[in-house]
Design a protein that fits this description.
It is found in: Membrane. By secondary structure, the chain is an all-alpha fold. The chain is 66% helix and 1% strand. It has a two-stranded antiparallel sheet with strand order 1-2. A hairpin with an 8-residue loop joins strand 1 (300-301) and strand 2. 44% of the residues are buried.
Length: 317
């Protein structure tokens, strides 16, 4: 028979031997094996992203991915700490804050890809300029991250239930903004895909035809779509979970959390690791960038299998 809640012992002084899980942050004991497995998987993905980032010189993409993955690792280490003591604030708050904000960094990397895709197909068929896509979604991501980080900082440093709730509510606002941003991103991606589909071939970027028709580039687009949907599903889940409260049903179902939080992010990161921009663009990631001044650069050849094809590019200054 499990222990009953012990009101004579402060929660921070509780142990598994003296208090019930009803007094813990979660009403379950986080799985040691499951969370350790996630740490191992994210560690492998981290090393892979660093290696591919240096190979491709896709620095912005790499920074977002690496920052997000590191935060995921820190978060699941916090959950491992809670396995031995589910009452401590340190493990709970570190996992809460890092796992909440980590996908915002991953989203930033995903957003950076759209401008390159537009340049590859041709800027003239897009309703929006490549640099506008990037500025718009990076700004949205910054606002989302700022709200989530501010809420996390308030929750982590709070001494009262009221201030903790305030922090959580700000985090929910940030997550909700992230969901709205992802919906807009998916909508604009679909709109651009439709524009590409109905555009005459002569209006497409003629210099990147071989790249667009390559199996690797098409696989990259599919994997990018999978990653976007996975992050979206996870973000919707976290809004629902935090809105329900720490003692709500969703917050106390570890299997649901491990699938809709952890597994979704693993799927997202794995998708853009298996088909990293390096495999799709070769050495042309930088050449397919945009300039804040909108100044077009020289045509540059795409790498991969000795191809001499080139794409009209706008260089990042």
């Amino acid at each position: 028979m499990g222990l009953l809640a012990n009101p004579t012992i402060p929660d921070e002084d509780c142990t598994l031997a003296t208090c019930s899980l009803l007094q813990a942050h979660y009403q379950y004991l986080p799985s040691l094996a499951g969370n350790a497995l996630y740490v191992a998987i994210f560690s492998i993905l981290l090393l892979s992203q660093i290696f591919l980032g240096f190979k491709s010189k896709a620095w912005g993409f790499m920074i977002g991915m690496v920052a997000g993955i590191i935060l995921e690792i820190v978060g699941y280490v916090g959950r491992i700490q809670m396995h031995s003591n589910p009452f401590i604030d340190k493990g709970f708050l570190s996992s809460l804050v890092t796992l909440t904000i980590a996908p915002a960094f991953l989203s930033a990397s995903i957003y950076l890809c759209l401008a390159r895709i537009v340049v590859t197909y041709g800027e003239t068929i897009s309703r929006i300029k490549p640099r506008t896509y990037t500025i718009l979604f990076m700004s949205c991501d910054f606002v989302s991250l700022l709200l989530q980080a501010a809420g996390g900082a308030i929750a982590a440093s709070s001494d009262t239930v009221k201030s903790t709730d305030l922090g959580v509510n700000i985090m929910i606002a940030g997550l909700s903004f992230q969901v709205v941003s992802l919906v807009l991103f998916i909508g604009l991606c679909c709109d651009f895909a439709w524009s590409v589909r109905k555009a005459p071939k002569r209006s497409l970027n003629q210099s990147s035809g071989a790249l667009r028709e390559s199996k690797k580039f098409k696989a990259f687009l599919i994997c990018l779509g999978i990653a976007t949907i996975a992050v979206f599903i996870r973000s919707v889940f976290r809004v629902a979970e935090l809105s329900d409260g720490f003692h709500g049903k969703l917050a106390n179902q570890e299997v649901t959390f491990m699938i809709l939080e952890g597994a979704m992010i693993i799927i997202a990161v794995s998708a853009v690791t298996i088909m990293h921009p390096y495999f799709a663009f070769g050495g042309a990631w930088g050449e397919a960038a945009w300039s804040l001044r909108g100044k077009k650069g020289v045509e540059a050849g795409f790498g991969g299998k000795g191809s001499r094809e080139s794409v009209e590019s706008v260089e990042m200054k």
